[in-house]
Amino acid sequence: MRIITALLASAALIGAGTAAQAAPVTALAAPNISVAAVQADLNQLQSIATANGGNRAHGRPGYLASVNWVKSKLDAAGFVTRVQSFTNGGATGYNLIADWPGGDPNDIVMLGSHLDSVTAGPGINDNGSGSASNLEVALAVKATGFKPTKHLRFGWWGAEERGLIGSTFYVNSLPAAEKSKIKAYLNFDMTGSPNPGYFVYSASGQPSGSLKLQQTLQAGFTALNVQTELTSVGGRSDHAAFARAGIPIGGTFTGAEGTKTSAQAAKWGGTAGQAYDRCYHRSCDTTANINATALDRNADVIAHALWTTAA
Ligand code: DPN
Ligand code: ZN
Fold first, then answer.
1. In a domain, 2, yes or no
2. What's this model's pTM, rounded to 2 decimal places?
3. 161 an active-site residue?
4. What are the residue ranges of helices labelled H in the chain?
5. Residue 108 lies in a domain
6. Which of 136, 160, 161, 229 is catalytic?
7. 273 inside domain
8. Which among 243, 199, 232, 240 is positioned nearest to 218, based on CA atoms?
């Protein structure tokens, strides 16, 4: 589903549109992210896990294979990519960083997601979902010819499941001058939970500037007629190191081991009294463990947030 919030008023002023009049309106709105493309990426991550002992965990071959596959898609689209290595638990870990050429180098918007799974399973919802959605949003930058005012950077983090290791290493490796160029960091970790909630990271207690990101994400869901709740994700994902560095943060989340309440089931559907993701950190976190509607909506909200924040 495509999110068009801005410029609907001007579309109305233009009046009954010919195709020629309508085109500029949609060209300026955030693009639709094809959920089929995100699902195809999840199938690829599942295949990588299956071919590598059933997981994509730090220090295991399925992790580096995941990095190399995402990198190849970004390289082909013209991103400038780099792989940053670090050591954890006696094994080498990797972050994949991708810059889109152009935009103000002193005003960077960054999107990130962890690409590693736990050792127990393939990690398709946690966090193939956020990783594949960010990948398709990045590829949409190229496909749509988006010319953002700000500079765009994307990160796929290693060893999140071992304690936010990769993202923390990345932030700590940046000189102060480079840190201060990152004006916003948006994190996507679990966006296709099978019994989904629609949670937006609360800006409360986060660096100033986070409220605007929270509101932008909320507006994206509102445009899709989806109600949201705020959630305090605290230090549970990769935004934490950015927040500690004073960088405004935001994100979305469809829920992990927590239980959906009856009030939530009434507004979102799904099953009350059951976990948002019954396969969280288990071997059953496969391509079968994804709610396509939640995946689709979150991917479109990510695009909406990037287009809005970076325009
Ligand atoms: N950090 C997630 C994990 O990888 O296990 C789960 C999570 C994400 C929990 C976001 C809360 C909020
Ligand atoms: Zn996760």
1. no
2. 0.92
3. no
4. 8-14, 19-28, 35-50, 61-77, 130-144, 165-173, 176-179, 210-223, 239-244, 262-268, 292-310
5. yes
6. 160
7. yes
8. 199
Q: What is the pLDDT of residues 232-241, one digit of tens each?
A: 988 999 999 9
- For the chain, what is the mean pLDDT? 93
Range(s) of the domain holding residue 83: 7-310
Between CA 259 and CA 275 the distance in angstroms is 4
CA of 123 to the centre of ligand 1 (A): 12
Tokens of 158: 């290693």
From the list 306, 302, 290, the residue with the least C-alpha distance to 40 is: 290
The larger pLDDT score, comparing residue 15 to residue 79, is at 79
CB 224 within 8 A of CB 286: no
Residue 263 falls inside a structural domain: yes
> CATH number of the domain that 198 lies in?
3.40.630.10
- Best substitution site from 63, 117, 233 to test ligand 1's pocket, by max atoms within 8 Å of Cβ? 233
- The mean pLDDT of 108-134, rounded to a whole number, is 98
DSSP lists the bridge partners of residue 114 as 157
Question: 308: Cβ–Cβ under 8 A, 6 or more apart, which residues?
Answer: 5, 6, 30, 216, 219, 220
Band of residue 1 on the pLDDT scale cut at 50, 70, 90: low
| Residue 269 Rama label (left phi>0; alpha psi -120 to 50; beta) | left
Residues in contact with ligand 1 by the CB-under-6-Å rule are 126-127, 160-161, 189-190, 233, 236-237, 253, 256
Q: Residue 10 pLDDT > 60, yes or no? A: no
Please give the tally of structural domains in the chain.
1
Beta strands 182-188 and 229-231, pairing class: unpaired
